[in-house]
Amino acid sequence: MGRAFEFRKGRKMKRWSAMAKAFTRIGKDIVMAVKEGGPNPEANSRLRAVIQNSKAANMPKENVERAIKKATDKDTANYKEVLFEGYAPHGIAILVETATDNNNRTVANVRSFFNKCNGTMGTQGSVEFMFDHTCNFRIPANGMDPEELELELIDFGAEEVFEDEDGILIYAPFNSFGTIQKELETRGIEILSSGFERIPQITKKLTEAEVADVEKLIEKLEEDDDVMNVYHTMEEEASS
Question: Rounded to an integer, what distance in angstroms lies between the CA atom of residue 66 and that of residue 172?
């Protein structure tokens, strides 16, 4: 198995437990998708993907419809995606993805978290190169052979295809998202969820005490409403 499989296994149970946070993230994704491509999912592939993710997160349909309606209002602020980079204690690189309607607030908050937790904010490009920007899709297994599917999807950009208890996962470079989404839809394969992740190229093993230092910063960042995802180069124990 490749790095995407190990990364997935390590993060699986760790970060996505807060339902309210997941709904907030999806709500922002809806606003950004509608502002970019309009409120019709049929004509807006990004919005289609977000609606699939809302179903996977068990977000009520009326919440989704309300968010789409709100996003079409001219007075609704758009969110800008901003990436922050830096280091946690013990030389662990940190990449923070945010979606914000007030960049000054977000910069101040993220900087304060790094400062309070003995980390340092980095300049643009200082750690981003240490991560592979990937896209992923989850589809039902339905008796499909992941190896066969991988061979069929290589031409569309797929790099890693594997099965877990949630179905079949397809990983590819970030810029292959649209191509693979279109191919899966053309084949009539249901997309349960999809998204983007940044997979560390190299990870560093820490002691238990050092892990606690890094976790303190990660938790502070993840509690912030503007923060969508936090990635790091700390080796994570795979959840069973």
Answer: 32
